[in-house]
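Dear colleague,

Thank you for sharing your sequence with our group. We've completed the structure prediction you requested, and as agreed, I am returning the results in plain text so they can be pasted directly into your records. Please verify that the sequence below matches your submission; if there's any discrepancy, let me know and we will rerun it promptly.
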Amino acid sequence: MRFVLYLLLMIAVALGVGFGLSYYALTDGRLFGVARVGPWTAWPDVGSNRPNPYTMGHLAREAALQIGQSEGLQFTATTDNNGDPLTLACTYRIEGRTPLATFWTLVAVDAEGRNLAAPGQPLVIRSGDIARANDGSIIVYAGTRLMPQNWLELMGTGEFTLKLTLYDTAVFSGFSSDESMPSIVRGDCA
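Please find the predicted structure tokens below.
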């Protein structure tokens, strides 16, 4: 009887650890194929002709149309530079430099992937539509309250995700962990 209980306990632990690690690999993926730069993450094998198994699992789980590897790369951020979740109760300053790309877009989406842009406002911030500093760096504000300069006006409540998509880029050819990506700095919160 004791043997059967130990056997069942070992099976339960093995299944829990196995499924838990699989879930972690397909969602966070930090140890399994994801490139992380500050709060930004990207799956560099997305769109390649031979992605690694974790990337294939991530793609199957997301079930979203992805751009090809030669077309560009998408970075996502769910936290600010301090590791706090992005929430619509606060405003954020996205500042710094972006990797070299012909074109890029910045969009805010909710957990279901719905765009959070306010009605009557642009759905995304485009690289060609913003004012830049003299050194080429960007400052974009995102939030539900009016902000100066480049502003991505959002609506709603709860947490959100920022997606920075770089088009026609060779970001991972010689890309290093100190590559410049914009920082996400939390401002005032309601």
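Summary note from our side: Residues 2-27 form the longest helix (26 residues).

Kind regards,
the structure core
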